[in-house]
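About this split. The held-out portion is used to measure sequence recovery: a designer receives only the C-alpha cells and must propose an amino acid at every position. Recovery is the fraction of positions where the proposal matches the reference. Here is one held-out target exactly as it appears in the evaluation file.
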C-alpha cells in the first residue's frame, strides 16, 4: 500500500499582516501549523522566505525542502509552549561543552584544539564575565554553577523563534559557546561549524574519509546553516542583550 502524500493544491503563496506579525496565505487561505495554530511569524522577511518555500513545491509537498516553515512550526507549536524546558535543556550543554574537553595526545591534535577552541572560550569570558574551564579526557567534569547560571539566564531571555534556532545551533555543534558565537555573528557560521568538527577532521586525516559519516556531517552542516538563517530572518534577539558582547 503506497504512503499518502500531501499534494500541491494552490496557485500562489503570498504574505499578509496578521496579529501583530506576518502570515502566509495560499490563494488567500491562511497556512496553519501541524497543531492547527495560525502560522504567524515575527518578520516580513521570514514570511517571504516561507512563502517562497511553498511556491517552490512541485506536485507533492516535501517538508524536507522547507526548513524555514518547519522551524517556524516548531517555534509556534512546541518551543512557545515549553519555553523554560527547552531553554534549560539547551543551557545544560554548557556543563559538557565540546570546547572544554581536550585530548591528551598527540601533540598536533592538542595544539589544533587549543588554536581552534581557546579563542572562543576567551571571547565568551569577555562577553559574559564567566569562564568555562577545560579538562583533559572525556570524563565529565562539572563547571562552576554560578557560571552556568549566568549563561542559562541569557538563554532563558530568548524569544521562541530565537530559541528554536539556538536549539539547533547548540545541539548540532555540541557547544553552547559556539551557539552564542553564531547568534552574535562573532564568526561566520561556516567557520564555526568547522571549529566544531576539529576532532572529526583530525580522524579523517589519519584514517581517511568515511563516505557515510561524511554525508551525515554534510546534512548536519546544512541544518546548522539553516538554523543561523532562521535566526537572521527572525530578527528578534540581538547581541546587545548581552551588554558586554562585541
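Reference sequence for scoring:
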Amino acid at each position: 500500500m503506497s504512503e499518502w502524500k500531501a499534494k500541491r493544491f494552490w496557485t500562489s503563496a503570498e504574505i499578509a499582516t496578521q496579529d501583530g506579525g506576518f502570515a502566509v496565505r495560499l490563494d488567500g487561505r491562511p497556512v496553519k501549523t501541524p497543531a492547527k495554530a495560525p502560522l504567524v511569524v515575527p518578520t516580513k522577511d521570514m514570511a517571504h522566505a516561507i512563502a517562497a518555500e511553498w511556491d517552490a513545491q512541485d506536485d507533492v509537498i516535501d517538508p524536507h525542502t522547507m526548513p524555514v516553515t518547519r522551524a517556524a512550526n516548531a517555534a509556534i507549536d512546541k518551543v512557545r509552549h515549553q519555553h523554560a524546558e527547552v531553554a534549560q535543556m539547551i543551557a545544560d550543554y554548557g556543563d559538557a561543552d565540546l570546547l572544554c574537553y581536550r585530548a591528551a595526545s598527540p601533540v598536533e591534535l592538542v595544539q589544533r584544539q587549543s588554536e581552534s577552541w581557546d579563542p572562543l572560550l576567551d571571547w565568551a569570558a569577555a562577553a559574559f564575565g564567566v569562564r568555562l574551564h577545560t579538562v583533559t579526557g572525556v570524563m565529565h567534569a562539572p563547571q562552576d554553577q554560578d557560571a552556568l547560571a549566568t549563561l542559562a539566564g541569557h538563554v532563558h531571555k530568548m524569544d521562541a523563534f530565537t530559541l528554536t534556532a539556538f536549539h539547533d545551533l547548540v545541539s548540532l555543534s555540541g557547544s553552547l559557546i559556539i551557539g552564542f558565537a553564531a547568534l552574535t555573528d562573532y564568526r561566520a557560521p561556516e567557520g564555526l561549524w568547522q571549529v566544531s568538527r576539529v576532532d572529526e577532521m583530525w580522524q579523517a586525516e589519519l584514517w581517511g574519509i568515511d563516505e557515510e559519516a561524511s554525508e551525515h556531517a554534510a546534512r548536519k552542516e546544512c541544518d546548522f546553516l539553516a538554523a543561523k538563517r532562521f535566526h537572521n530572518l527572525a530578527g528578534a534577539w540581538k547581541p546587545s542583550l548581552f551588554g558586554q558582547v562585541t
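Annotator remark: The first strand starts at residue 13 and ends at 18.
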